[in-house]
Pyridoxal-phosphate dependent enzyme (Winogradskyella marincola), 312 residues
Amino acid sequence: MNKELLIQTHQRIKPFIHKTPVLTSQLLDEIAGCNGFFKCENFQRMGAFKMRGAANAILSLSDEERKGGVVTHSSGNFAQAVSLAAKKIGVKAYIVMPENAPQAKKNGVKTYGGKIIECESTAEAREFTANKIQKETKASFLHPSNQDEVIYGNATAAMELLEEQPNLDVIITPVGGGGLLAGTALAVNQFTPNCKIIGAEPKEVDDAYRSLKSGKIEKNESANTIADGLKTYLGDRNFPIIKALVNKIIRVEEQEIKEAMQLIWERMKIVVEPSSAVAFAAVLKNKEEFKNKNVGIIISGGNVDLTNLPFG
C-alpha cells in the first residue's frame, strides 16, 4: 500500500461521490471534553460512506467485466451504494438481501435501480444466493467490506478529513465488517502516521474487539444490537490491516449508543443511524482518554428507519 494508490483511488471516484462536510459542535465538545471533528458521511450520496468503496470497486473492473454486471449481498447501505454506483456507471446490479432487511433500505435499492433477490437471513444463505447469481449471469462479485478496492475507496473519507484537519490526535470509526476501519487505518498510516486509530463496536457484537485480542477472526453467537449495520464480522483482507495498524477497539452498551445518537440529533441537528453513533458513544464513554484532544469521528451513515427510532 502506498500514498500514490490512495490518491489515484480518490481521483477515480471523485465524479461519483460527494466531498462531505466536517462539522463541529461547541456544546458536544463541552460534554465530551475534547475537540470533535465529525466527518459527515450521512451526507454522502445514498446516505453512507459505502458509496466510496462501491464506486471504486465497479470502476476498477474491466470493460468486459462490467458487461456482466455486479452482484453483492448486503442488508442495507452497501446494497444501496452498489445500486446507485452501478446506475451512474452504467452497469447492471444484482442485490442479494435478507428477507428481514429494513424496508427503508430495500426501498432505497429499488429507487437506485438495483434488482433485489431476497434470501433467508443467514450469512450462508446470502453467500449461496450471490454465488448462484454470479454463475448464472457472469456478474462480478463485490464484497461489502472484505475487498481491496472497497477498502481503498473507504479510505478516502479519512483522507478528506485529514486534508481539512491535519492535526488530529486520533480518528475513531465504527467497526462491523471492518472495511471502513481498515480503510481509515491505511489513510492515517500513509498521511498522518502519528494519529491514533480506534474502532468502536457494540458490546453485543464485539467480534472485532475479541479478534484484535486473540489475533484471529472471531464470530458472534448473537446479533442483538440496535446498530444493524455492524452485525457482520471481519474478513481476511481487512483483518490483517486492522491487526497491524489499529490501536484498540472500544465497546459500548446499547443504551450508550441510543444516548449518543440522540445527542447528535438534538445538538447537531443532523440525522445519523445507530451504527454511526457508536463512534461518538465510545468517545463519551472514555472521556479521560480523549480529554482535550483533537478527535476525528467518522459518521458512517444516516439511513434510519424513521418508523423505528430508539428514542422519542
